[in-house]
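haha ok so turns out i had the wrong file open the whole time. this is the CORRECT one, sorry everyone. sequence first:
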Amino acid sequence: MNQKTKFILQRFGLMLVSLFAVITLLFVLFRLMPGDPASQLVSPRFSEADRQAILEQHGLTEPLHVQYIIYLQNVAQGNLGISFQHGSPVLPFLLNKTLNTLSITVPALLLAFTFGPFIGANFAWNRNESLDSYGTGLVLVAFAAPIFWTGMLSIMVFSFWLGWLPAAGMHSATYTEISLLDRFFSVEFLRHAILPIAIFALWRLSQPTLIMRNNMIDLIGSDFIKLKRAEGIPERSIMYRHGARNALLPLVHYMALAFGFAFGGSIILETVFSWPGVGQAMWTAVRASDYPVAQGAFTIISVAIIVLNFLVDILSVYVDPRVADTGVEA
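then structure:
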C-alpha cells in the first residue's frame, strides 16, 4: 500500500470518528438545553393518557441511553425525526431550506473568491503604495464590520431610502411557487437576493484577498520572480501568469473550507434579511425547543464541514504529493 492510499484511509477514518463525536455531542447538548420539548407537542388541555401517548410516539419517554441508540440508528438511515412544531419529517424540510441557503451563499462565495485573489494580487504587487495601504484598510474594515450591521445599513439605504430593492424575504407575500426553477430563476428572486448576496460576498471578500496578498508578497522576492524579470517578461505577465498561479494553491484549500463554514455565517444573514434558509430554521427551532429540527440542522452543517475537510485533504494529496508523506508520518 503506497503512502497516498494510507493517507486517504487515515483521513477517512478520522472523518468517521469526527462524525460520530459531533453527532454524540449534539445529542447531549440539546438534552441539556433549558425548556421542555413536551410543551411543543402536548397542550395543557390534553388528558394524561393522550399526553403519554404523544410522548411515546416521539420516543421522549425512553431513557436517554435508549434515545441515543435510536437516534444513531435513525441518523445512519437518513432519518432525522419528526418536527415537534409542524409534524413533518425533518430531513426533507431541512434539505429544502438548505437549497434556499445555498442560493445566496454559493453566489456570494464565488464572487468573493473570483475578485478576492485578483484584488489581493494587485495589492501585493503595489505593496506600500496608496492602493495597497488604503485598499487593505478598507478590506479589513469590511471584514471587521458586523454582518448584521452592514445588512441593516444596506436595507435602510437601498430599501427604505432609495426603494430600489426589497427589504426582506425570498419572494413577495403573494408569490406562489410553480416549480423549483421558478423559485430560484426569476426576476423576483433576483431582486430579493441581491442585497444578501452582496453583503455576504463583501464580508467574505477579505479572506481570499489577504491570503492572496500575503502569498504574493512571499513570492515577489523569490529567485523565481527575479529570474522572470531578468528574462524581460512584462510585469503584468509575471504577476498573473507566474506569481498569481503559484500563490493560488493555499487559496484553493481554504476555498473548500469556506463553503462549509458559510452555513455558520448564514444564520445572522438570514435573520437580518428574513431569508427562509437552514440558518433561520435552526434559530427558530432552538428557540422553540424543537429538538429534531435543531439537531438535524446542526448535523447537516457539521457533516458538510467535516466532509469538505476530508475532500480538501484528498485534493491536497493530488495537488502536492508531499502532503501524503508528512500526513502519514504525523
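Residues 14-89 form one domain.
again sry for the mixup
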